[in-house]
## 1
Amino acid sequence: MAYLLLILGVLLSFTFVYLVKPKNNGNLKLLLAFSGAFLLALTIFELLPSVYEESDSKTIGVFIMLGILLQIFLEFFSKGAEHGHVHLDHEKTNFPWLLFISLAIHSLLEGFPIDTHDTIIYGILIHKIPIAIILSIFLLNSKIKLVNAVLFIVLFALMTPLGNYLAANFEFARTYYLPITALVIGVFLHISTVILFESSQDHKFNLRKLLVILLGIIIAFVL
């Protein structure tokens, strides 16, 4: 069921963009703000306490910082696609390998905590839907062949379930569960905080965004 939810979330987002061709960026920004707050709150409420309870705090802190640095490094190649920005040339016709590889690493890591933290799947799913919509808009508006755009989205959809599969079935994932999870926490902290900072454009007060951010935090707390 977890695999199906994650795959369908991405594929249906692509189908929605292909059929509807959405242009309302305001609603998409609200969804991004909600997803950032929801993912950040789940990370703080669920993932952080679990890793600090079971290991040396300084070691965990090192891996969290490494996760933040890893995500910053990946964004040199993805140009910020993980938090809703695709700054690539629309005129290019080649398969965007650098974008795909950076997103694949990010998505693969996302799947690791799902096996032991059930509720985190909802944070990842709600995070992936607006990202998949933004990626789909870029791919369909670029000069990349449709078959390559579909291939990109299908492979992207499979990466997080693959990470979950590796975590559940391979010994190395169980042996290094805590450092890997701490690494993922760093990735989540960076992604979610960047989304929240960017949702407050020009530091102007926006009641709707504040309300969806509060809603994301409250729902995460209840879960």
## 2
Amino acid sequence: MKRDYELVVLLHPDLEIDLEQPLTKLRKIIADNKGEITKEDNWGKRKLAYRINKEDFAVYMYFEVSLPPETVKKLQSTLNITDEALRYLLTAVDPKAIAAKLEAEEREAARAAEKPQEENSETKTEAKEEE
């Protein structure tokens, strides 16, 4: 049974020129650990809050992955010795938090759908008063 995780990897800033090689390596590391990438996002080069290995900047890569829990330790140890990665953060996704977020988004969408109808009725009322 696979669990969902979020993985953020800070790549060495010099790799920004050609990201495909380190990304291929990261994808292979995840695949070798029986993982599956469901989402991948490049957050770009950003300034770090503090220096890491004498670097002030890093390229942030975000992944949503599905992994068997027994391979997480192996993935972490592999990322620890990967030269391209300055730091990483791997966290398990809480299914209850995702459900709550989706529910909140649905409520917000319902409110947004009601609001234009209320505005239309107000403008009609104002138009009638002007006549």
## 3
Amino acid sequence: MDLAFAFAQINWWSVIVAALSTFLLGGLWYGPLFGKTWMNYFNFSVEDLKSRNTARTFGLSLILAVIAAFILDMFIGHQADLMTGLLAGFFAGLGWVVTFTGIQYLFEMKSLKIFLVNAGYSLVSLTLMGVILGAW
């Protein structure tokens, strides 16, 4: 792969939109869908979450999401279509993130329930990113 060519083909708008999609999904995922399960497992209260440095948490999360979207876009390639993006995002999530998260959770003796919440978010996020990147 010619990295200079691949880098020049990056559609930065799609990378930004793909990164922002993780925030929308995260708001649903860790809000009305699985928020109570996640908060209960980690013993977080609403006050705990309000007391964190929100700008730091969300700012660094956005930077990490942009990096993830950028790398996924490089992985998918500039000639990808929606289906290629969907499959690449799904298999990147399943093959790398879900498996390594599973290994960590096994050694950390975390519950299957919280594994499914966190790994599920990553899998759906990467699949959604792949769709966005492939569609553009």
## 4
Amino acid sequence: MSIAWIIVADAGHARIFSAEEPNGELDEIQTLTCPEARLHEGDLVSDSPGREHNASGSGSHDVGHTSDAKQEAAIRFAEQVSEVIESGRIASRFNRLYVIAAPAFLGILRKHYSSATSQLIAAEIDKNLTTHDAIEIRKQLPKQL
């Protein structure tokens, strides 16, 4: 039997659907969330920026954080999503993969696919459809999965 998985994701939410028939409906099988994605940058960073004093004694300025906490949260979430996909591939739960993701998150997610998983990707769509229902998501996919 040919089973397709459809991943619909953004930096804070991922939904995994399965389609057991090439023309079939989507069945939502798993949902993943990243609570950090909903927080403001300031809520993710516990400390305030450090201060650096000017050597001439004429003042000081903030020394910002060198990393973007929201970006780091998105990377961790992409790793989590890719681990679920990888587990499904290893367990032979699908043999084709469709990925629909917000453009920025799609770029992050691509970096975490194994080469074996990459070979199963039938299509990628750079749209954020995480809040759409299964019928609307299905309309974005080829008629034959």
